[in-house]
Design brief:
The complex is a heterodimer of chains A (about 900) and B (about 120). Chain A has about 900 residues and is α+β, with helices and mostly antiparallel strands. Helix content of chain A is about 55%, strand content about 15%.
Chain lengths: ~900, ~120
């Protein structure tokens, strides 16, 4: 049944008014007749019966009400309120527009932040409806490092656990898709057979992976691809199922395309391939050394097992059972590893949930958003208050006519809601328009990596905006509404100018103080963020990336085995070093300041007995000769790698200063000591050099131990070529290196060719993003606060026109009048500033996690914010006061 | 108990229900028009209950809406046009329900009033 039909049905069932009138007329006639027969004359009988009947209109009204449903009745009242409110606002469009604009900004910023938070906490995985309930198991070492669970341990947990309705495993990796010139790296997930079933993700074509794809190692050469890959690479070909793609040079048959909404469970990255875990050895998952045994080795960390808890099982109960299982596992088949415990956490808090890096930023942003909203509300409260004063007459008349105070307050709140609704709508629109801009910005920073953010504006966001709008309508409307209804009828109607003026002045002053305080908070935050970005940009990361190139290659993409790969890289280095203008050239597996942590290796130190709970896993890099010379990393003791440190020479290693300090008490003592990497089966390597620490992943990281292995003793197919030259433009060096690669193998794809400085942008991304957002919030808050302060102060000045007139008539100069107002304004500003500074000092600790290089109590940021806020207060006071002082005293007096 | 009130919408459900019951009861003896219903209630309560037209007619509308009475224009004995209300079978059932509810209520109130005397008499 459509709404209109239903509505007609409702409306038809109403009082038949003509019939009812007839009935009343008949009643009157019968009554009059009776009176007449009792002896009254016709005229008085009629009058008498009418009198006895009572109020005909009220009776008809009551009868009509019987037929109107209660909600229409209630609605009727509201509609008349709304209509009145609309008329009242239309008479004052400036006020309405100002309020709507301010609210749009306040609600829009909050809706945007909420959308991001929601994307993390409520819908962390696009295309999976209950993703927020997903629970993740991960190991945590005694030093707080997160460890993945090995495949055999995962199997044990899956088969013995009772608290999950199913446990799947997934591990992101970045294989080569295709080979030769058309090859490229894409994000993929190595998944267990029950992955899609547990997540409830279906295939739009073909099938998903199934438990039957997890039977025997190497026996399931199948793959499921994403909707995006199917459309981009295969032109949405309908006969896609059955085609073959090469992943890390291994042919896999496409068995299905997943639903378009699904982008994998790897947060931020857009996953395009899903391969069965049974193919891990064939696809060279992990490093070459480990991939063969990855399915049987209990030391090979592969997964974060995850799944949905059974109904009625709490996370604490699940954690306890998993803990018991892992204890059983440890005593069953002990593993000589650092002690670790298995934890169960919701997806968004898991190590794979990625928000760990985003959470501090978002926390800060939501706090800032709320502050902006508070300013907006304070601002509007000021406007409503001022307007309430000018409506005192109207309200007094309403109350004199018998309107109750609740009724008047309700009317005023409805007026506020009428303003809040368009504010909320526009706010959602603002968020909707703004988020793609931010996402685009982040995508640009991440390119050529494909990223995906699950940040749609949905009903949840709209609901949130509505809630915020209602809450703020209440906040900014209630107190002023109460104020304006608390009027002394007699004095208002007698046009007595200032009943309770003092109380209202206090409220106004309070609003100015509050706005100054909150905007100071915002400005301090914005200032600290800006300063920390400046500091991060100018901080020296321990190496010199200027005039250095970064050309990323993976020879496996053109089918090179290790022997050919070694030969290729040797030729490449020789060729690059021979190029004109190149001072030095080297290779490295990882580029520093890449934002994400690189893999760590377990290390044994000769003569060092690890204490219980000692976590000896350190990040490492495989680098060719001349690495430290090329990146200008100082060698503190010993020597750096040379060409002679090849596969035939004695195994060697270079460590950083922190490692040398920690285990041998200093760089000079480290030379000649031995370490072993890669667990118990690696060779003992002699330390030949100690180099200075650099920032390995992030600019704000703490110093930690780090190892360098010579490339020829730690071969990897995927390396980055660095060349340093004196050419004024690094791009010429980049082109030169690119040509060098093409000359050796024109079919080998170049994954990235950039000046090294550009590869470090990712590490700055969060700082940049946070700073930009904080700046926007700060500017918005400041603008709002300035507007609000100006409005309130200029209103006060206007109210005092009379006083100004008298003072000037008595001979006061314009300047002294201005000075008087300025004094009062500054007084309020100073109170607000003191509160703001105290508040900022209290909450600045929140910012510490996103700051770099500035203390949370940085004096310069505070001073700048103070100067700006007080400057705005001065302008907002002086301008209206000056205008008032220039009016003719006579006209000011006459005005009253 | 009088049903006089200047604001017809300000009555409680109890009063609504009671007036409805009285009207149904009056109609039990056969169809009547509005004026006669008012007069009957007044006469049978020995002039204690004076049903105002302002309450009576909305109440009749309420009963008609619920389907307990139906209305039909017809001629009075004095040959005047009037709208006559008649009990429907539904209305009769409702009347029985109302009566037993009323009895319960009166009994309950009676018990309370008597009990309220008890502590005082123990003194």
């Amino acid at each position: 049944m459509s709404i209109s039909v239903w509505l007609k049905g409702v409306l038809r069932k109403r009082l038949d008014e003509d019939d009812f009138d007839d009935e009343i007329r008949a009643h009157l006639a019968i009554a009059a007749d009776e009176k007449q027969s009792d002896g009254a004359d016709p005229h008085s009988a009629q009058l008498q019966s009418l009198k006895e009947f009572g109020n005909v209109t009220l009776t008809t009204e009551a009868a009509r009400r019987v037929w109107t449903p209660w909600w229409i009745d209630a609605l009727h009242d509201q509609v008349s309120d709304v209509r009145y409110a609309l008329r009242a606002l239309a008479r004052n469009p400036g006020f309405a527009l100002a309020v709507i604009g301010v609210l749009t900004l306040g609600i829009g910023l909050n809706a945007a932040v909420f959308t991001m938070l929601k994307g993390m906490a409520f819908t962390p995985i696009a295309g999976v409806p209950r993703a927020a309930q997903l629970a993740v198991i991960y190991g945590e070492t005694s030093t707080g490092r997160d460890v993945r669970v090995s495949y055999p341990d995962y199997q044990y947990l899956r088969d013995h656990d009772q608290s999950f309705s199913g446990l799947f495993g997934t591990s992101p990796f970045k294989p080569n898709l295709g080979r030769g010139r058309t090859g490229r790296q894409v994000w993929a997930e190595m998944v267990t057979g029950n992955y899609f079933q547990i997540l409830g993700v279906r295939a739009q074509r073909g099938r998903t992976l199934l438990p039957s794809d997890e039977i025997a190692p190497g026996r399931h050469p199948v793959i499921v691809i994403s909707d995006g890959l199917w459309r981009r690479d295969f032109g949405a070909a309908p006969d896609i199922v059955g085609k073959t793609v090469e992943v890390n040079n291994y042919p896999l048959t496409i068995v299905g395309v997943v639903e378009s909404t699904f982008h994998g469970t790897t947060v931020v990255y857009d996953v395009e391939l899903f391969v069965p875990v049974m193919m891990a050895p064939q696809l060279g998952f992990g490093s070459q050394q480990t991939s063969a045994g990855i399915l049987s080795d209990r030391r090979a960390a592969v997964f974060f097992p995850q799944g949905f808890l059974r109904p009625g099982v709490t996370r604490a109960a699940a954690a306890a059972r998993i803990d018991a299982l892992s204890a059983g596992l440890a005593s069953d088949r002990p593993l000589s590893d650092v002690s670790q415990r298995l934890r169960v956490v919701p997806f968004w808090r898991s190590p794979g949930g990625a928000p760990l890096v985003l959470l501090p930023t978002l926390t800060v942003l939501s706090a800032m958003g709320l502050l902006v909203l508070m300013i907006a509300c304070g601002n509007i409260a000021g406007l409503v208050l001022v307007r309430g004063v000018s409506r005192r007459g109207e309200i007094a008349v309403r109350q004199a006519l018998g309107a109750t105070r609740t009724r008047v307050v309700r009317l005023l709140i409805v007026e506020n809601l009428v303003l809040a609704v368009p504010g909320a709508l526009l706010g959602v629109v603002l968020a909707r328009q703004g988020i793609p801009v931010l996402v685009g910005y982040a995508e640009g920073l991440a390119a050529p990596e494909r990223v995906f953010f699950n940040v749609g504006v949905d009903s949840l966001v709209i609901g949130f905006a509505a809630l915020v709008a209602c809450a703020s309508a209440f906040a900014f409307g209630f107190v002023p509404a109460l104020q304006s209804t608390r009027v002394d009828l007699v004095s208002v109607i007698n046009a007595d100018a200032s009943p309770r003026g003092a109380a209202r002045g206090r409220l106004r002053a309070g609003l100015v103080v509050a706005q100054v305080a909150v905007s100071l908070l915002l400005l301090v935050g914005a200032g600290l963020a800006t300063r920390s970005v400046e500091a991060a940009r100018s901080a020296y990361p321990g190496f010199d990336p200027s005039h250095v190139t970064a050309i990323a290659l993976d020879v496996q993409q053109n089918g090179y085995d290790e022997a050919r790969g070694r030969a290729f890289y040797r030729h490449l280095l020789d060729g690059a070093r021979a190029d004109a203008g190149v001072e030095s050239a080297t290779l490295a597996a990882y580029t520093p300041l890449g934002f994400l942590d690189t893999p760590a290796r377990r290390v044994a130190i000769e003569g060092y007995e690890p204490r219980r709970g000692d976590d000896l896993s350190f990040m490492w890099n495989s680098v060719a000769s001349d690495y430290f010379r090329t990146l200008h990393i100082p060698v503190i003791a010993g020597r750096e790698f040379e060409d002679r440190d090849d596969e035939t020479a004695a195994p060697v290693v270079v460590v950083n200063q922190t490692l040398a300090q920690r285990f041998w008490g200093g760089a000079p003592n480290a030379i000649g000591k031995r370490v072993r990497t890669g667990g118990g089966d690696g060779d003992w390597r002699t330390v030949i050099g100690v180099v200075a620490d650099v920032k390995y992943a992030r600019i704000n990281e703490l110093p930690h131990p780090y190892l360098y292995l010579p490339f020829m003793q730690a071969y990897r197919s995927s390396m980055t070529l660095h060349t340093r030259g004196s050419a004024p433009l690094v791009t010429t060096l980049v082109d030169q290196a690119r040509a060098r690669v093409a000359a050796l193998d024109r079919d080998l794809p170049i994954l990235r060719a950039k000046p090294m400085v550009d590869t470090m942008r990712g590490a700055m991304m969060l700082f940049d993003l946070t700073a930009t957002m904080l700046f926007i919030f700060g500017a918005a808050g400041m603008g709002l606060a300035a507007m609000g302060t100006y409005g309130l102060v200029s209103y006060t000045v206007k109210q005092s026109t009379h006083e100004i007139g008298i003072r000037m008539a008595l001979g006061a100069s314009g300047l002294s009048v201005v000075r008087g107002f300025l004094g009062r304004g500054l007084q309020l500003g100073a109170i607000g500033a003191v509160i703001g500074v105290v508040g900022a000092l209290a909450v600045a600790r929140l910012l510490t996690s996103v700051l770099f290089g500035v203390s949370a109590t940085d004096g310069i940021s505070f001073a700048r914010a103070l100067a700006l806020v007080l400057g705005v207060v001065v302008v907002a006071t002086v301008v209206p006061a000056w205008r008032a002082a220039r009016t003719n005293p006579l006209s000011a007096l006459r005005h009253h | 108990m009088t049903l006089h009130s200047s604001r017809p919408d300000a009555r409680t459900d109890l009063l609504h229900g009671t007036l409805d019951m009285l009207i149904l009861r009056t109609l039990q003896w056969g169809p009547q028009h509005g004026y006669a219903i008012g007069q009957t209630i007044r006469a049978q309560s020995s002039d204690v209950l004076q049903v105002e037209a302002g309450s009576l007619y909305p109440a009749l509308q309420r009963l008609a809406k619920k389907g307990w009475v139906t209305a039909k224009w017809s001629q009075t004995e004095a040959n005047q046009r009037a709208k006559f209300y008649r009990l429907t079978p539904e209305g009769k059932k409702q009347l029985l329900r109302e009566e037993s509810r009323w009895d319960e209520l009166v009994n309950a109130i009676g018990r309370v009033m008597k009990a309220a005397l008890a502590p005082g008499t123990e003194e």
